[in-house]
Structures are given as C-alpha cells and as structure tokens.
Amino acid sequence: MLLNTADQIALTARKLTLAYDGNVIIQGLELAIPKGQITTLVGSNGCGKSTLLRGMARLLKPQGGTVYLEGDAIAHLPTKELAKRLGILPQSPSAPEGLTVRELVAQGRYPHQNWLQQWSREDELKLEGAISTTHLEKFANRPLDTLSGGQRQRAWIAMALAQDTETLLLDEPTTYLDLAHQIEVLDLLYHLNRDAGRTIVMVLHDLNMACRYSHHLAALQNGAVLAQGRPAEVVTESLVQQVFGLHSRIIPDPISGTPLCVPISQFIEG
C-alpha cells in the first residue's frame, strides 16, 4: 500500500517496468519510499532489487511507468539537478589506482561546480564534513587501495555524502565485508539518517540486518513488490517461505526487538 501524503514520500515508482536487453525484470511495480527514513529492499537473488535501485536512480531507462522524486518525474530533471538531490552508491564500486580518500570524496562535489567556479569554500567544507562524519580523518591522504574493506566502503559513502543529497541509494553496501565491518557501515548509515534526516534506500541480503536497521521494508518477488511496511508488519514466516522458499521461525531480536528470522534446516531437528 502506497503512502498517501505527498510531503512524506521521497521516491515513488508508478507502474514501473524495467528491462535489460529486452528481458523484463521489473513489471508494473508500485512503490513508495518514506521521506527521512531507512528503507531496505529485500528478496531472493534475481528478484529485481538492484535493477529497481538503478531505475530509481535513472541509471536504467524505464520501458514503462515513472519514478518521481518528491513529486518531480526524474526523467525530466536536468542531470545536475538530479545529482544534487539524489545520490547512489553502486555495488562494488571501483576507483583508479592510487586515488586517495580525499580525491575520491572530492568527486562528490562535481555536480555543484561549473565553469565559473571550479572549487569553493563550501565545497571544501562539505568535503571535510563528509570525511569527519565517516571518521576517515587519519586516512584522508592515503590511497584508497591501502584501506580495509570497511574503511574503503566508508570512503565511498563519504563521497556520496559530499554530494550533499537528501536521498541516498546504496546497492548492497555490506557486500564482501566481515560481520564487524558490516555493523560499522550500517551503524554509520543509521546515524546519518537519525542525525541528518537523510532518506536512505538500500539493498541488503541479510534479512535480520534489514529488520534491525530499517524503518520500512519492501519485499520483492519476480519483479514486483509483494509486501511493504514496517519490518514487524512485513516479516512473517509465511512471507519468508514465499519469498525465499525457506521454513523459519520469527522471534523478537533480543537486542532490538525487531523480527529475527531463524531458518529451519531439513537436516537439523530441534
């Protein structure tokens, strides 16, 4: 069910259809992303989560339907204006060898520059603020490829923060990270939302992490939204069975109180 109050919605997909090389991945999808909240897209591999994120960022042209950013159709927004309002961090981004953290983060300011003004005091302040927020001060002049996985991911998030958009999309920001670094990145995103009011939309594979860190979940299946709402409303044993083909028990997370999915293996008896 879509939200009804326009000023409470950051992104809206209406009858959205997305395809790669003629192969339809998303068909007639309807989705509303609450403003100022963390929304996570969940679902099995190949269900269309990353495709949807790319479509909402205008990296993939729809075959049908429209994506709206706070009421404005993104297809009609000038590229620089869209980049000032909406940032995206793709899955497993890469950078030129030897690029320092500071140089990477500075790239987030490009949408705010023009031929009259290449770099300003505001650009410098935003850059320093992004580095400070992600706790990368002591790594600022180090090459990106010398950092740990968690530090590199924070550097990419810092670049997105320097872009200074109200809405930030992240495709699997914890991929290839160990558990400690996953928590580090998710804690950072949580604080960005809580302290700065940024709207965050991300794709996560870990359903329990999605429940713990999200205000809003959208469960996808076969290119459509099967359910969306608060984690406690969305994550049920029947939904886990339907979306992931997995028997489970849903219990309260002892730390956060959010739904905790305990898989049931056919080889292990309780």
TrEMBL record:
GO cellular component, one term: plasma membrane
Main EC class the enzyme belongs to: hydrolase
A Pfam family annotated for this UniProt entry: ABC_tran
Single Gene Ontology BP annotation: iron ion transport
Membrane topology type: Peripheral membrane protein
Subcellular location: Cell membrane
Keywords carried by this UniProt record: ATP-binding, Cell membrane, Hydrolase, Ion transport, Iron, Iron transport, Membrane, Nucleotide-binding, Transport
Gene Ontology terms, MF aspect: ATP binding; ATP hydrolysis activity
EC number: 3.6.3.34
Span of domain ABC transporter: 11-247
Annotated PANTHER family: IRON(3+)-HYDROXAMATE IMPORT ATP-BINDING PROTEIN FHUC (PTHR42771)
Name of the featured protein: ABC-type cobalamin/Fe3+-siderophores transport system, ATPase component
Organism: Rubidibacter lacunae KORDI 51-2
